[in-house]
Design goal:
heterodimer, A: 188 residues, alpha+beta, six-stranded mixed β-sheet, five-stranded antiparallel β-sheet, 4 helices, 20% helix, B: 179 residues, 5 helices, 8 strands, globular
Chain lengths: 188, 179
């Protein structure tokens, strides 16, 4: 996918997401937008603890750099410019080799090995951003994306998508995973 | 005279700002689109319980247009669109158009808690084991399918919509009597 991509001049903005009150990184191009909103590890812990995961299993997710992702097809409603993406083609560029994102399918294997109960697995699957999706104009999704990095890491995200028969690629630079809160001291 | 001009200018500025804010909000909330399915297919059959333990079969709604919404209480755009679904349903409830909300993976207690904050009168069905959603080509929540009076999936919307929008409701009405 990336080989034949048209590399666009990325229009990336950052700021504080009004709803989450946390930093975001947003790429807007004609016909699409994607926003990554930082999630604090404690938010992720709280979410999955409430859905049947053990503390040990929750740590696996919370320590893996999770962002809320909002991807939209912003093409005019009157157009037929459908949009497709595949997270397997996206690359996380941090220190060392570029790596893949951790998708629903990757986590499904982990949860199967760890014997996670089905209600928790269902919640996890649907809470995660879809690995592949096709959007028509006006369509969008929200979901958690997992980048597989320790808290407080910085990375660039090389992403690609296709729209109207053309493949596009862009880089969102300098994304920052939320730092973890210091552990609460236990006193006797 | 000068004071009148200043007031007029201020009024114009406010109008421009309001229009700009409205356009921005409309853009962020997504277009009111329904994507037509190229070849309508029979909607997969199901039977699910509502919150009162009453069974609902999709087949029970043959002859009506069904707005089948897959959602979860923790999903932000699902929560955002739910009040508009309620208002949309209130507008068309006597017109052979049915709204069904299929909650994915949660139990009745969780949905009851949700209803403490959101007033919803149309049937909310429990797909606790995610068996039904697996029969539909859903990859993200919310996703809504429109099923025509013949039981065929004719349209899809991925992400939330303002379901009380009359333009959108007119498209549902048109499905009751296909050409």
């Amino acid at each position: 996918m990336a080989l034949s991509a048209t590399c666009v001049q990325a229009e990336v903005t950052t700021g504080q997401d009004a709803d989450a009150g946390l930093p975001y990184w947003e790429l807007r191009e004609p016909g699409m937008s994607v926003r990554l909103v930082q999630r604090h590890p404690d938010q992720t812990r709280g979410f999955f603890l409430a859905r049947g995961f053990s503390r040990e299993d929750v740590e696996l997710i919370a320590q893996s750099c999770v962002f809320q992702t909002i991807f939209r097809n912003t093409a005019p409603a009157t157009s037929s410019d459908s949009l497709e993406y595949d997270l397997k083609a996206w690359r996380v560029q941090a220190a060392g080799e570029p790596r893949s994102m951790q998708t629903r399918e990757d986590w499904a294997k982990i949860w199967a090995e760890r014997g996670i109960a089905k209600p928790a697995r269902i919640a996890f699957e649907w809470a995660l951003f879809p690995t592949r999706q096709s959007y028509n104009p006006g369509d969008y999704n929200w979901g958690m994306s997992v980048f597989g990095l320790p808290p407080d890491s910085h990375f660039d995200l090389a992403l690609s998508w296709s729209q109207s028969g053309k493949t596009h690629a862009a880089v969102i630079p300098g994304i920052h995973c939320a730092a973890d809160a210091p552990p609460i001291l236990e006193v006797e | 005279m000068r004071l009148q001009r200043i007031c007029l200018l201020q009024l114009l500025c406010m109008l421009v700002l309001c229009l700009s804010a409205y356009q921005s909000a409309a853009k962020e909330s997504g277009a009111q689109t329904l994507s037509a399915v190229t070849k309508p297919v029979a909607a997969p059959a199901f039977e699910l319980m509502d919150l009162d333990g009453r069974p609902h079969k999709l087949a029970d709604y043959l002859g009506k247009v069904v707005v089948l919404n897959f959602w979860a209480t923790w999903c932000p755009p699902c929560r955002e669109e739910m009040p508009s679904m309620q208002r949309g349903w209130e507008k068309v409830r006597d017109e052979d158009i049915v709204f069904l909300g299929v909650n994915v993976g949660e139990d009745a207690d969780t949905v009851f808690l949700f209803l403490a904050d959101y007033s919803v009168d149309f049937p909310l069905l429990l797909d606790k084991d995610a068996k039904v959603i697996e029969e539909y080509p859903v990859t993200g929540l919310p996703t809504t399918y429109i099923i025509d009076a013949q039981g065929r999936i004719t349209h899809r919307a991925v992400g939330g919509r303002a379901w009380d929008d009359d333009v959108l409701l007119d498209r549902l009405r048109a499905l009751k009597s296909p050409k």
